[in-house]
Amino acid sequence: MKRTIILRLAALVIISGLCTSYLMIFNLSAQDQEANIIFIPEVGNQSPDFSLEDLKGDNFTLSEVTKDKIVLLWFTNLCGGCQARINELERIKNLYEKKGIEIVGVSVLGEDRKTVERALQQYGITFRFLFDPKKEVTKLFGGEEYLGVCPLKNTFLIGKDRKIIYIGRYPGIEESELKNQLDKVVGGGK
Fold it and tell me: What is the reported pTM?
């Protein structure tokens, strides 16, 4: 009996320590990020700034785009689940681009451009797709990426002030949920 109580207390102490560490990770400053401390974005945080090239070789810098637009970033490895619903994002792009929202895909496939090019052509995707060959931006937003596994949080709605407005997992959320979030930021929501 005493042994069980001691084991339970030890487990609580360990869990408490892990929770404290976990909470500390979520409240890091920009200086901490530069010191290579893990940063896990959450709603209300300032989004990390970054620059990547798109499929056409044009540069995309988040801080430049968010001066004029709200950005929906979608980090994807273009797995079967993502490809099955990728046309939803194209529809969303068509509905919201005139309202100041830009949909931007970010490939987490490293150097693999062929998979992205094939998917864009197959599905007629016209929203911007960025390449993250060294997976540095992927790590900024979702941590380490593992081959064939989508990040647990891979959809980020970034406001004009570069504040994170919404975080989700696409295709884990429904199209209606994504539209609801976009309607809120463009004034069409409740």
Answer: 0.75
